[in-house]
């Protein structure tokens, strides 16, 4: 009996924090400061990816350019999960030198909880598209923007609340984190491009040597 109660408590608290993040974000993230759960972060990120996949399958074909048969699951992971992980790393790097009070696990958990509006509302929006005509596409776009603006707002709020920053400092750290994110992705892109050119050059040289050798 006590074991069932313990399990219930473990399940109930993350749900309560999730509801608080949705409707009272400052209180929710304040509660999250004392709650550490790598499992909860992983579950929320997996739910985010699962919702993305389900929305691709559910969204009516006449309001989206991405059809299920054209979807690439690996690419979808890159699109939805990698930016979140990158943002968590960028925020942690900046907050660690800006008198932050969070560890990377706290940052990752806060980022994962910030995706709750996406997890909760994306599938209902996808279901609504089944009732829309092409002329009502604007409604689908507006609803998607509302969800993503909600997520963006939560990302900013959690940065301030989790680190006990003032509004001014929160905005500054957010901009620095965004700049760090852009620099990191630009660096990765540059390295990938240079590596690709080197590989192509080596292949061309190798093929040229083989051609001259057996000519």
From TrEMBL:
Transcription is among the record's keywords: no
UniProt-listed InterPro entries: Yip1_dom
Segments crossing the lipid bilayer: 38-57, 77-95, 107-131, 137-161, 173-194
Membrane topology: Multi-pass membrane protein
Signal peptide from the UniProt entry: none
Residue intervals of the Yip1 domain: 20-187
Location(s) in or outside the cell: Membrane
Keywords noted in UniProt: Membrane, Transmembrane, Transmembrane helix
Protein name: YIP1 family protein
Taxonomic source organism: Paenibacillus alginolyticus
